[in-house]
Structure formats: structure tokens, C-alpha cells
Amino acid sequence: xxxxxxxxxxxxxxxxxxxxxxxxxxxxxxxxxxxxxxxxxxxxxxxxxxxxxxxxxxxxxxxxxxxxxxxxxxxxxxxxxxxxxxxxxxxxxxxxxxxxxxxxxxxxxxxxxxxxxxxxxxxxxxxxxxxxxxxxxxxxxxxxxxxxxxxxxxxxxxxxxxxxxxxxxxxxxxxxxxxxxxxxxxxxxxxxxxxxxxxxxxxxxxxxxxxxxxxxxxxxxxxxxxxxxxxxxxxxxxxxxxxxxxxxxxxxxxxxxxxxxxxxxxxxxxxxxxxxxxxxxxxxxxxxxxxxxxxxxxxxxxxxxxxxxxxxxxxxxxxxxxxxxxxxxxxxxxxxxxxxxxxxxxxxxxxxxxxxxxxxxxxxxxxxxxxxxxxxx
Length: 377
Prior knowledge:
Blueprint: H1 2-31, E1 35-37, H2 40-46, E2 49-52, E3 54-69, E4 75-78, E5 84-89, E6 96-97, E7 102-107, H3 109-140, H4 146-172, E8 188-192, E9 197-202, E10 209-210, E11 217-220, E12 226-232, E13 244-249, E14 257-264, E15 273-280, E16 292-308, E17 313-315, E18 318-326, E19 329-335, E20 337-341, E21 344-347, E22 359-363, H5 365-376
Antiparallel strand pairs: 1-19, 2-22, 3-12, 3-16, 4-11, 5-7, 5-10, 6-9, 7-8, 9-11, 12-15, 13-14, 13-16, 14-15, 16-21, 17-18, 18-19, 20-21
Helix pairs in contact: 3-4
Keywords: Transport
Organism: Mucilaginibacter aquariorum
Protein name: Efflux RND transporter periplasmic adaptor subunit
């Protein structure tokens, strides 16, 4: 009887010990919620495919931003060299002007004085020239002293200098000395456009006095606009002159503007970036100076570890892949991704438990994610 009781007790204890092992396994899986175990039926329905991470040639796309700029030779600030009152103008910001077109009229009494001084000097130089010639002849025949001849020559040469300087001043304000006379003196001068382009700024109004240092108008010739991009120091070595790019505005991201790198700046700002100037292949009049643009530049192909796009899942703002860790067991592992091309995505860095020999799920990753969510719920 005692033997029977002893055997019964032993069987109960062995049965209890055998039931603790699955509980331990379940506890282990509960500790790591990133591990999912599938049955044979689940594995078949999920259509799981696996593979290794391999090195692929992925062409990186460098994304930059900047704005449309105009070279200094295509921007003109209009001012009046001698100042004056603005009598009239028809300019408005955005208006188109042609080279040589009168864009404003300036008047001032000093313009009258300049023309008077020139005509007076012109009238006097005839007398001084004749006196210089007469004294020269007399001096050669010893009929007059050298002093008188030298004085006549000095007055004549001084008058020539005065006439030349007055003529240059008149030319500076746009008055042709050939067009003025005693009966034709003007109190106003025309301001002409030196370029074909558009008016970007109008800084004056009718009747205002402007000094020589003030800018009346600013004109822009947009036919030679370029794109100035900001490039960080770490990306400068990826660029070269002549490199192709595609640029687009935020308003029209699908409309691409082809261009190429024209100049790479070597002066870094406080933010550790440099200016890279790019030229558009074709001029588009819809592109306005000052407009912000984005650009995409294809850089050299590099070999990097990559995995199929289908292997990557998005969960709670992060990216994951599933690593095969055992029979029907998969572990969700966080990754950092780089560029994508031809159905593959670059994995920026491999962790210690993600070697190139590890096996990962390449198809059916989202099925695993859904199973994990349902299990968690």
C-alpha cells in the first residue's frame, strides 16, 4: 500500500515539473515583445520569404535648397550723379524696360549753370586761342617777351582744361555738348535704362529731391539668373563643376528645371555651409529672383548594405526589419535607412546582431507586424 502511495506522489510531482517548462518559455516570450513565433499554418499563410543583407550599388541623391539669385552685372542701381528733383517717371515695380529707354526726368538749376559755364568757356577759348597764336608769332620775331607769350599760352591751355571738364560733367548727366547753344539750354535731363530687364524697386516719388548717393530705381536683367544653393561642409566633396541637377519650387514640385553647377564656394559660413552657384540650361521667365527652390543632385554610386523595400515596415514613426532567430521565430529589429534605388534601400549601419550572414524576412514583413499587433491586443 505504501509503495502505491509513493508511486502516485512521484507521478504527480513529475507531471507538475513537466508543466513548468512551457510556462517558462511563454514568460520568456512575454519579456521580449519584439519576437513573434508562427505555427506551420501561419507561416504558410503569411507567404514569408527570407534572405541576407547584401551589398548593392546605390546612387545617392543629395537634396539641397537655396534661392534664385542674379549676378552683380545683371543688377543695376539707378542714381543721379549730380542730384536734382524728380520731375516725372512712369516706372512701377515689375514693369519691363528696354535698354536706352527714358525712365525718368530730373531737373535742377545746376544743370542750367553747367551749360552756361560751358558755353561761356567755349566763347572765351576762341579769343584765347587767337591771342596765343599772335603772341607766339611775336615771340618768334622777338617783338614780345617770353613772359607775355608764356602767360598767353597758360591761359589758353587752362581754358582747354576747363572746357573738357565741363563737357565731361555734362556728358555725365546725359547732355550732349553738341546739342546745346545760347538759345538751347535745358533745365532738365533724361535718365535712360542701361539694360533690358525689369524694375525691382522704385525708391522715389514725383517732386522729391534726390542726392547723388540715393538710389532712384533698381533694375534686374533676369536672362542670366542662377540658383544659389547652400551646401554643408560634409557634402562639398561630392560636388564638382559641371555636375547636373534638377531644381523645383515648392509651388510646382513636379516642374523640374535642369541646370548644372557653375561655381563652388570655398568660404564657409558660421553654419558650416558654402554657396554653390548653378546655371539653368534654359531661361524660364516664371522664375523670379529671390524665389526659394529645392534641388536634387545625383552623386557618385557607392556600395552599401541594402535590403528589399518590402522587408522594411513602419511602426510608431520608426523603421524595422525582421531577423530570423530560430525555427518559425522572428525578431523585429530597428534600423536606420539611407537612399533607395531599384527596389532596394540602404541600411546606414549594421549593429552587432545584424551581420551580413544573418537571415532576414524579405517578403511578408507586414504580415508579421499585424500578427504582433493582434497578439499585443
